[in-house]
Amino acid sequence: MTGIYTVVASDADGKSGAYYETTPDTGEYGLSLVVTGGTTTSLQDRDGGDMTVGRSESGTISPGGDTDAYAFFGQPGQGVWIEMTDMSACPGLTSALVGLEPRVQLYDPNGVRVADSGWGYSRAQIEDYQLKMTGIYTVVASDADGKSGAYYETTPDTGEYGLSVTVMPAKGPYGLYPYAPQPPDGNSVSLCDWDTLSWGPVDGATGYDVYFAGGPCMPLEKVAENVADPCVPRSALENKHHVCYWRVVAHTPEGDIQGPTWWFAVECCFPRKFTTLNDWVALGKPDCWCSGYKYQCDGDADVKDSGGVAKYCVFTGDLKLIVDNWKKPPSDPTFNPCADIDHKAQVMGNYRVFTNDLEIVVRNWKKKCAELPGDCPRPE
């Protein structure tokens, strides 16, 4: 079903032969999650990507328990050959207990596992699997662990691997499905420089639906329906430093073709046309000056409301920040540029927080955010 699923991680304890463990263990662990049909990379793990044209990649299984995902667009009548090779074992050693025990699994567009290499000493293969349906297939690469003779390995291995995916007969991705997203998949983008979502057109498409989510725990929601051209204006993004996800479905006479799920990270930005851009850069590009903080230049120095019932946008927390940074030079390591409400240096001194910033706070004292313009940063 659709909704938020919960993964619970714990220490299992248990019984081993005549030994029964009664005391829970503590320690560090690694956790990895792959959602078939979802993104193949993330900010935390860049291993993965699109393999439609067939290519070789290298990656790292780390920490223990890590799994990496790769994807390709396939059609009935094509065969796929997948091979994963351990690149971390010492040369000349072939023991299953040294380095990775590679394992690759293949999932169809419906999320059903259709092939599994099992585990081997240093290489895992899925040989000539014949694709049964059209869509995005997911390849999951991992360390298998396993049993070798009387020895059972309980600790996941880490290390480097090589992965190759060969799709036969090979077909170029352009025109087959929504491809080549802009912004590019996994990139960081600035709200100041980017205003559209676009992708490569699909042959014979009569229109496109676009789905968008402003965070990892938000559902993909339709933001454009049956648009004729392979581009749409970007959805409104008021926050910065978050990750957005999107997907395109192409309508064709033969049926809908769903593209991969892409993501991009939104960067803080300050308009390049502002003469104070150099000041923003010199002060370390403070987030609070950016377009994601709509009320900072109206006196909301701490970029949060007062809480409680009143929820004042400008209140004692902002005044305290002004006082704490009063006439401090920017070179002071304790200086907080969020207290620089008007984004201007003082002409007569080497400081940025002074009476003009205080005047803005006083003018908007105890005002709620809805009573303020909310258009920061504001042109000079």
For the structure shown, list the relevant keywords.
380 residues; mainly beta; five-stranded mixed sheet; Immunoglobulin-like; Jelly Rolls; six-stranded mixed sheet; 33% strand
How many runs of DSSP E, i.e. beta strands? 22
CATH architecture of the largest domain: Sandwich
Cα radius of gyration in angstroms: 27 Å
CATH topology of the largest domain: Jelly Rolls
Distance between the amino and carboxyl termini: 51 Å
Number of helices: 3
Overall domain count: 3
Helix percentage range: under 10%
Average pLDDT confidence is 86
H/E series: EEEEEEEEEEEEEEEEEEEEEEHHH
- What general outline do the C-alpha atoms trace? globular
- Given as residue ranges, the uncertain stretches (5+ residues, pLDDT < 50) are none
- Beta content comes to 25-35%
Please give a quick description of this structure.
By secondary structure, this protein is mainly beta. It has helices at 277-282, 316-324, 355-363; strands at 14-16, 19-21, 48-50, 55-61, 67-74, 79-86, 102-107, 113-116, 123-130, 135-143, 146-148, 151-153, 159-168, 179-182, 187-190, 196-200, 207-213, 221-227, 231-233, 243-252, 255-258, 262-267.
